[in-house]
Structures
1.
Amino acid sequence: MRVAMIGAGYVGLVSGACFAEFGVDVCVVDTEVSKVEALRAGRIPIYEPGLDRLVEENARDGRLSFTTDLAEAITGADAVFLAVGTPSRRGDGHADLSYVFAAAEQVARAAKGPLVLVTKSTVPVGTGRKIKEILRKVRPDLEIDVASNPEFLREGNAIGDFMRPDRVVIGAESERAFAVLRRLYRPLYLIETPIVQTGLETAELIKYAANAFLAVKITFINQMADLCEKAGADVHDVARGMGLDGRIGRKFLHAGPGYGGSCFPKDTLALARTAQELGAPVTIVEQTIAANDARKEAMAARVIAALGGAAQGKTVAVLGLTFKPETDDMRDAPSLVVVPRLAEAGATIRTYDPQPGHARQMMPAGVHFADTALGAVEGADAVVLLTEWNEFRALSPQKIKAAMKGDVVLDLRNAWDPASFREAGLTYQSIGRQ
Ligand code: NAD
Ligand code: UGA
């Protein structure tokens, strides 16, 4: 089989490389010339564990290629996937569908014969139908089937999530589209992955419902953490006690500084806006968005409070800047709120992140980037653990104490052992624990 993947971002690149690994011929297209050149030269523009090897091996074996020429990519393709960005539209929070519609139109203009156009980008309910209209207008002569195949991979674990997903969702209206997608995902049938076959609108909504539900779940445990602090309870045990109930589940019940990333913030906002417009507001999601925004601000206030109420003249070491470990992605990371607030309050900020590439361009002027975690901690009045990279878990509290000037430690991910930090003479605070 042959597939064209439009967009060489996180989703396009990972999906393209994984389909190639399944034995499919994949051509990935991107408009960004430098990205395509880098990929052709074997350089991966993003940090995603295992992706470099997968791309290298499949490119070498001739199953994975990269181009800026969309017409070349879609020639002979059984399916063309749209994996372009759908960021928040400035001002109103709706998903910006301009990249999706532009790419769909480009595909229609370049198509030489019937094909199946599959939306992998996360798009609001009703988008597939709009794409159908565009295709009909641009190429009334051609049979182009539209399908929705939302992607559920997580950054940092993207290849595992793609290769062993909990489910594959296929929304379509023709047997040809279902058949092409079932053939593509055949290796997953063999490992008994559930396939949800449904209509276009339902597939589109499943994606938003899943992301929004996870965002609500995280926000719920974050608010429970606040309650635990007031009530003398331990959020870790509350989450465990809740999560062992099979109806609730243990995953996504880790209290923290608020969710970030390229998807939860923008997708919750887009779902809330679509639901309002359709006259069925999802108020629980609206409240989640507000609570999560407020939480990031509250984390900065918490650090200032721990410094005795004033950050002026104090040095704060921030460990971890990306929105989660094992990625270099900074989109909507809690650090984008916490660090500027501390800097505005007069603190000197020293940071360390194992993947600081994007962070360097996004932090306020004057923020120092150290080469190691202990280097960042050097001379700090307070240490804030903001992203739980594995290498931070192994840090010795004694070494942290020895490197610091002060003794305040705020573990905003509950990644460290409170007792050993207190034994080392540190004033240790975490989230939702005493
Ligand atoms: P991204 O911004 O990393 O990549 C999008 C790529 O598309 C860019 O490289 C851009 O240059 C390219 N592009 C835009 N228009 C194009 C065109 N007309 N032709 C060719 N290339 C074009 O985005 P992403 O993070 O991969 O997300 C893509 C979509 O997948 C979004 O809708 C997102 O919500 C969804 N999604 C993302 C993730 C994730 O973990 N990042 C997971 C699931 C779903
Ligand atoms: C998320 C979803 O998990 C994927 O299924 C989905 O495909 C993707 O969004 C998307 O649509 O793009 P991702 O954003 O890569 O994936 O990362 P997550 O692991 O979900 O983490 C998101 C945020 O929630 C991070 O800031 C993380 O620190 C936070 N989080 C997660 C918590 O605070 N607590 C938790 O228990 C879990």
2.
Amino acid sequence: MASVRVVLLGPPGAGKGTQGKLLRDRFEACQISTGDILRKAVADKTPLGKEAESYLSRGELVPDDVIVRLVGERLKQKDCANGFVLDGFPRTLPQAESLEEILKTMALPLDAVLSIQVPHDVIVQRLAGRRNCQNCGALYHVNFDPPSNGETCDRCDGGLQQRDDDREETITTRLRVYESQTAPLANYYRERGKLREINGVGKVEDIQKRIVEALGRPAS
Ligand code: AMP
């Protein structure tokens, strides 16, 4: 199995989580979603969770040093031996620079940074209807991808919930933070020849196909 080392870049609601899970399964890589790690830490009331909680609830970014340490440790774990899909990291220029250092030390250069492009109105629609299973984390959308019985998870029958930060007030802050702090990373990676722009509108399978093609690994 060929390895893969990619960053998924894109605003909240671009589909990074959905596409990241598919890439993880396709390439037997690990998926590192900093948002998922932080939400779990908050739920488990760990020291990291206590530190991160107020940033998450406001839709603001957790300090760079906390996140960089977390990802650096995660990348060393066994399930990342065949590659990684970074979902939600890096999100600032200092995070991107730290990642470059970490990967240099590990002699694991990035294959590509996939910038998933979705118009603003589609993002707002997607975020407002997004739900996830409290038990297994599976993702749904009340209109575009509802569970078959309309209420509980198809995979494990768990209850569905809306993320606290998917409420309207916080969505606005998250999109503003994305534009000011994360969007400039596109240039950083373009200058390094790593950026691949992906049209993120359409069916999940079609977007995955575009991603795999952009990686130069057409679907078999
Ligand atoms: P996400 O699930 O990727 O939308 O992330 C949810 C929240 O977790 C963000 O709004 C931030 O508060 C925090 N977060 C996730 N990733 C990062 C990161 N790389 N840097 C700083 N904060 C992050």
